[in-house]
């Protein structure tokens, strides 16, 4: 059976280097982020390679989801996702923060109910 995604329009995934603009996809099995622009790097054989920045997190690997906002600028909202192996991922710049958080919570709830059956 196909796992339909809810697409959250342009968002940013924060890295230690800088925020990366892209799309966030939320399904009943995983969340995925794909950057709008490709990253360019040099391969071991010296060729330039272009590839989008992708992050895929299975919902069963999520320990918690924390909504957050900048106290000085409440319009700057964030969603932190912490995995069971204590990696954390920060997403920001949502067109609809409430909608993104709602879909993420619904997907996690559906998955937990599925495993309780």
Give structural notes:
There is one protein chain. The chain is an alpha+beta fold and 117 residues long. The chain has one domain (6-116): PH-domain like (Roll). It has one helix and seven strands; from the N terminus they run βββββββα. The chain has one helix at residues 97-116; strands spanning 6-14, 20-26, 30-42, 48-58, 62-69, 77-83, 88-92. A seven-stranded antiparallel β-sheet has the order 4-3-2-1-7-6-5. The two termini are 19 Å apart. The model has no long low-confidence stretch (mean pLDDT 87). This is GEM-like protein 4. Belongs to the GEM family. Residues 13-110 form the GRAM domain.
The overall pLDDT average reads 87
Q: State the CATH superfamily name.
A: Pleckstrin-homology domain (PH domain)/Phosphotyrosine-binding domain (PTB)
Principal-axes shape call: globular
Helix content: 10-25%
Estimate what percentage of residues fall within beta strands: over 45%
State the CATH topology. PH-domain like
Number of beta-strand segments: 7
Rg calculated over all Cα atoms? 16 Å
InterPro entries: GEM-like, GRAM, PH-like_dom_sf
Pfam families: GRAM
Family: Belongs to the GEM family.
Protein name: GEM-like protein 4
